[in-house]
Amino acid sequence: MPDTAPWLVVGLGNPGSEYARHRHNVGFMVADLLADRTGLRFSRHRRVMAEVAEGRLRVGGPRLVLVKPLTYMNLSGGPVAGLAQFYKVPVDQIIAVHDELDVPWTQLRLKQGGGEGGHNGLRSMSSSLGSKDYVRVRFGIGRPPGRQNPADFVLSDFSSVERKELDFFVDRAADAVEMVIDRGLEPAQNQYHGA
């Protein structure tokens, strides 16, 4: 079987320990779990401001490059576009994993293309890639309570109640990424949109 381009799985988040458990960093959490599952280690890329982990989804499986941009969220696109060029990855083999205010907590929504819904990381990716046709794994964090500013909400830690479910939810999001790679977007949508 010829070796085709790898899948580029981008966990969106902000670098630094002070952001590690914020809602805005669920993409990093999913990327870290995928690296753990596949036995891959993140290291600083030599040309691009990102941490990458390269390998295969499983022995003999599809090639995989996990990415955590080291720029802040609103500049994520530059490293992603640089890595897509470096690894010669077509845009439809790029998966962005990100927090989503417009999806209720504990739900996942998967789609290809479309708008960015005010998400600065997606806006930066679309601009830098010159395309919106990458796959998104939208990790529902729900809307902020009361009149809390959405920007403050995404840059805050999960509540104690949410933290009890967080690991399970991160696990499901990682499963969804693997299913998109293995079986395609539509089967993954059918599996995860009903849950």
Q: What can you tell me about this protein's structure?
A:
The longest helix is centred in the C-terminal third of the chain and has 24 residues, at 160-183. The radius of gyration is 15 Å and the shape is globular. Strands 2-3-4-1-5-7-6 form a seven-stranded mixed β-sheet, with helices on both faces. The chain is an alpha/beta fold and 195 residues long. The mean pLDDT is 94. It has helices at 26-38, 77-87, 120-129, 150-154, 160-183, 185-193; strands at 7-11, 43-44, 50-56, 63-69, 94-100, 108-112, 135-140. It is 37% helix and 20% strand.
Which characteristics define this entry?
alpha/beta; 7-stranded mixed beta sheet; Pept_tRNA_hydro_sf; EC 3.1.1.29; Pept_tRNA_hydro_CS
Topology:
Blueprint lengths: L6 E5 L14 H13 L4 E2 L5 E7 L6 E7 L7 H11 L6 E7 L7 E5 L7 H10 L5 E6 L9 H5 L5 H24 L1 H9 L2
Parallel strand pairs: 1-4, 1-5, 5-7
Antiparallel strand pairs: 2-3, 3-4, 6-7
Helix pairs in contact: 1-5, 2-3, 5-6
